Amino acid sequence: MLPLxxxxxxxxxxxxxxxxEALSRLGEDVGAVTSFTGFCRSExxxxxALELEHYPGMAEEEIGSVVAEAVSRWPLYGVTVIHRHGxxxxxxxxxxxxxxxxxxxASFEAANFVMDYLKTRAPFWKKEHRVDGSLGDWxxxxxxxxxxxxxxxxxx
Amino acid sequence: MLPLxxxxxxxxxxxxxxxxEALSRLGEDVGAVTSFTGFCRSExxxxxALELEHYPGMAEEEIGSVVAEAVSRWPLYGVTVIHRHGxxxxxxxxxxxxxxxxxxxASFEAANFVMDYLKTRAPFWKKEHRVDGSLGDWxxxxxxxxxxxxxxxxxx
Amino acid sequence: MWLISMSEIKLVYFAWVRERIGLAEERVSVPDEVKTVAExxxxxxxxxxxxxxxxxxxxxxxxxIDRKHVKPGALIAGASEIAFFPPMTGG
Amino acid sequence: MWLISMSEIKLVYFAWVRERIGLAEERVSVPDEVKTVAExxxxxxxxxxxxxxxxxxxxxxxxxIDRKHVKPGALIAGASEIAFFPPMTGG
Lengths: 156, 156, 91, 91
Prior knowledge:
The complex is a heterotetramer, with 2 copies of chain A and 2 copies of chain C.
Chain A: E1 4-10, H1 16-24, E2 32-39, E3 47-54, H2 58-73, E4 78-84, E5 86-88, E6 93-101, H3 104-121, E7 124-130, E8 135-138, H4 143-150
Parallel strand pairs in A: 1-4
Antiparallel strand pairs in A: 2-6, 3-5, 3-7, 4-6, 7-8
Chain C: E1 6-13, H1 15-21, E2 25-31, H2 37-45, H3 49-54, E3 62-65, E4 68-70, E5 81-85
Parallel strand pairs in C: 1-5
Antiparallel strand pairs in C: 1-2, 3-4, 3-5
């Protein structure tokens, strides 16, 4: 059975529970479902919002190729990735990754892998909106994220 | 703020969506929520059910101490662990781990850590019920699980 | 008159250890010369066929004293509940 | 009469590269001697203050050709869309 792969780039909120449920129902040998949800943070009350800009088309393609790489590396029944763009308030979900496998380690590692690569390869940029109403800076890319991504020895 | 720690050992099904939602709502600096759900598998149609036996009291204490160790190692807003006992059919959820943190790596690693230790330290045993109605074997502990648990350098 | 010193302990068994012994729990009077969990397992082995079967490979049977995992060399003095079970398969 | 050979390419900019240049996209005629993405960035830098600002630290600006990440030495011949943007911060 081919794995069920879903990549969506959207401005609307996502329903993490429904996405997790869908991958949990891919048959009686799904033994492990891992989900990761990334949320907008207020940074201790400093931020009113984050504005996410993206490169339409390229975002889907890059995330799609990360997902394809994940299913080539781990035995997976399904992978779902949803990444939002637009203005996010604190506690709004920005990104969701769900993986389903027979086994725990495959599901965990694949979800972690997808998040690592998504952070360094998916063309999204975050701009801060401060609570005082002013526009803040563009969020800097973390060197730490590059280091995490190199753990998987994927060619750039 | 003290982290919200929840450990439940129960025979009833759990609501993964509600548990994930609860940890996602622990404030505006929750940036990352990881969930892992382990399901009963049919093993390619061979099994009708798994019966989970546990050591009441010790199960809560062991999982509680794994959770306490996790919050001492990673900055977490909350950890929820639910482990069921009794008879599980294929696709029934057996175990749920949810972790909430500001940051992705803390949330991912803590969830992975809790699952690794739960597998090797929590007093649960699985017995197979075959589809032909006969009782199968007790599931053997995997040496692989012991190896995974030693990654974290926790004293036994 | 002479006296054999004994202490009574609650023993609990799980999974195939329980099935082989045929009991989930029992109270036993253990001779004082039985000092460790491993010695207790060895002493139990002499109590009959079921026990011999349960402990036939003592290396795979795990022990807990008062609901804490212990090593085979752990002393049983003062214990109120000692458990024997196979390697765990939770999660 | 002499002829300067040029090819027209669509350029797209994101995040602070877009803000500094003041444009989300444009079509430009690039001289044929501009062969690589790095040379294109260098040539754009000469087009005015905004461009100079956007590319002031060329090492941090990333490029993509037809929606694929590329290294600075990648050849631009045949490209229909070239993007410049800061390191990504998705996820």
